[in-house]
Amino acid sequence: MSHHFHPSSLREYDIRGIVGRTLGEADARAIGRCFATLLRRAGGTRVVVSRDGRLSSPALEAALVEGLTASGVDVVRIGLAPTPMLYHAEAMLEVDGGIQITGSHNPADYNGFKMVMQRRPFFGPDIQRIGAMAAAGEWDDGQGSVSDHDFTDTYVGRLIAGYAGGSYRIGWDTGNGAAGPVIERLVQLLPGEHHLLFTDVDGHFPNHHPDPTEVENLADLQRLVAEKQLDFGLAFDGDGDRIGAVDGQGRVLWGDQLLMILAEPALRETPGATIIADVKASQALFDRIAALGGTPLMWKTGHSPMKTKMRETGAPLAAEMSGHIFFGGEDYGFDDAPYGAVRLIRAIHLSGRSLSELRDAMPAMANTPELRFRVSEERKFAVIDEVLARLAAAGAEVNTTDGARVTTADGWWLLRASNTQDVLTARAEGRDQAALARLVAEVDAQLAASGVVRG
Q: Which stretches are annotated as coiled coil (predicted)?
């Protein structure tokens, strides 16, 4: 027996595809067989499994569990859960690995698998290895058991442990995603006044798409904050590992701005610590970390590289523009949006200012949202190489950590290839609108030189 995955489904950080077209139950079964075989060879015997609220998740979970047990691994099911709850369960229960079935923030017909093995992210070469093993039918036979465990109260208790964040009036929008039940329980334990939107889990996503990085998906939360005159609002993506926020005036705070707020108490507690942000983050963030006496580090976008770099540097905190916020030290180093919410409330409280006041104090920069350009999977990395070669020839000031981040007198611009989609993404930040226009023109010129037109 062997199994061949659709080549587009084996991604850098997970296995993901369109259910019924590029991903199905046979894939789930094969993932279970290969993951279980790798785990047993590494001396492991038990895996925790959970799923998000997508319509296809229960069937994929059943097939995955079938594959895991058929290769001799015992499975602990924790049911419907946001991805960070799976990470916590993998770290706290007596298990050797974990798999979350989730389509994250992709459209409703997508689904996929995020994996951890022996407390480490399972990505890149690990995922390619599963592809190769399945194609060769290289898996062990066995007979594992299945048990169910309710982990929600343990997880929420972990989020709230030692809470010292004061009392606020907060709006919460979980977008019908998997974080809903956790947030419902969390707010019962928090002081203050809480107004909840769309906490019922519904894989049709009837209200808005569960992606807080798109401004239109925050409109309901902005309306709620305005109508009820709340202090601020918090939003979550479909599987609860990314956070969005709006202040009392309805202004959106992006991942780098949230990190500016979180950095202050973190550096008070760990003076001089390294704090990591991805290459899309504002220069204002790196400057702020340095001003607070910390060591700013710019690193690659993506949850697996971020987690690995945090472990290497002992960083207490890291964030991506996309709303992944990672907490290091005794907090395991996960990207955990419900925990991020608790920590953000605490940081606002410790600052002695409102979120609106903290937002007002940030330097005013002119910047673009993330600009996206469709480029074929085969071509996307080649375009970046061409751009880097032209920049080198021109003697530009370039950071090549992840794509090209170019600093000029006007500010900076970034062009990188997405690890998860067939797109190039760009971003630019200038000291004013005129400077920003010049930076965006540079991006367009580089893309045009490689035959890519902004669509």
A: none
